[in-house]
UniProtKB/TrEMBL annotation:
The gene is trmD. It comes from the Bacteria. Specifically methylates guanosine-37 in various tRNAs. This is tRNA (guanine-N(1)-)-methyltransferase. GO terms for cellular component: cytosol. GO terms for molecular function: tRNA (guanine(37)-N1)-methyltransferase activity. The lineage of its organism: Bacteria, Bacillati, Actinomycetota, Actinomycetes, Micrococcales. Keywords: Cytoplasm, Methyltransferase, S-adenosyl-L-methionine, Transferase, tRNA processing. It is found in: Cytoplasm. Its EC number is 2.1.1.228. Homodimer. GO terms for biological process: tRNA N1-guanine methylation. Belongs to the RNA methyltransferase TrmD family. S-adenosyl-L-methionine binds at G118, I142, G143, D144, Y145, V146, L147. NCBIfam families: PRK00026.1 (NF000648), trmD (TIGR00088). It comes from Paeniglutamicibacter gangotriensis Lz1y.
Length: 248
């Protein structure tokens, strides 16, 4: 997969050199390029913002550098096809659709993703309209709160998407039983020692009885989800529940 990120703080994205995403880059599973938006300015001050039309607080990101940066990325995109296929442009925004695991799975299938990190009060709206000529433009929020810029949102999204690319996580089994993979939160996990601070690992996990362990974990998933995220239980597709789940 190719990923391009445009930001006025490219150093912010240095964390994407670390851990599994950094390794995926070194293993050529992920071709990740970070662009400095100021490289697309032409004035002495490398200005990327200006006052908002209509008045109000804060500054707005100017369209010209964004237009130039995105035009260049679109022209180089491996995903732009002869039949008019468009690469995906994710625009982090608190006013976007909320990012979740299903969206991460969908985006992990893409050949090319571009992320446009806003700052200040956001990016001039015409940039999104213009970009829609070359990209499938998607404003995306990582939650109902406001950050100072899109970089932190991009770190979260690239990590969530990147770990789903085949080969990035050593054991793909570990993706299957995670929170949100089946609509439920994950069960509690334990490791050695079996006894710590007077607290014991649940006995069933030491039993070697795989059916009982699976039942214990499934019950814990259901209990935990009902307690912490009742909204997920309400959304659960009844057909994913078995007879024993209904007794829990
Ligand atoms: N004025 C904007 C609004 O009320 O919708 C908020 C702008 S915010 C201070 C600056 C930038 O941070 C946004 O353009 C966006 O890139 C990023 N951002 C802030 N909160 C975000 C969130 N919850 N999810 C994704 N990106 C966010």
């Amino acid at each position: 997969m190719r990923i391009d990120v445009v930001s006025i703080f490219p150093e912010y994205l240095a964390a994407l050199d670390l851990s599994l995403i950094g390794k995926a880059r070194r293993d050529n599973l992920l071709d990740l390029n970070v662009h400095d938006l100021r490289d697309y300015t032409h004035d002495r001050h490398r200005k990327v913002d200006d006052t908002p039309y209509g008045g109000g607080a804060g500054m707005v990101m100017k369209p010209e550098p964004w237009g130039a940066a995105l035009n260049r990325i679109a022209a180089e995109s491996p995903a732009a096809g002869p039949l008019g296929e468009k690469p995906i442009l994710i625009v982090p925004a608190p006013a976007g659709a909320v990012f979740d695991q299903a969206m991460a799975y969908e985006l992990a299938e893409a050949q090319h993703l571009t992320f446009a990190c806003g700052r200040y009060e956001g990016i001039d709206e015409r940039v999104l309209e213009h970009a829609a000529e070359s990209f499938d433009v998607r404003p995306v929020s990582i939650g109902d709160y406001v950050l100072n810029g899109g970089e932190v949102a991009v770190l979260a999204m690239v990590e969530a998407i990147g770990r789903l690319i085949p080969g990035v996580i050593g054991n793909p089994e570990s993706l299957v039983e995670e929170s949100h993979s089946d609509g439920l939160l994950e069960y509690p996990v334990y490791t050695k020692p079996g006894s710590w601070q007077g607290r014991e690992v649940p006995e069933v996990l030491l039993s070697g009885n795989h059916a009982k362990i699976a039942r214990f974990r499934r019950n814990k998933q259901l209990e935990r989800t009902a307690a912490r995220r009742p909204d997920l239980i309400v959304e659960l597709d009844a057909s994913t529940l078995n007879r024993h789940d209904r007794d829990t």
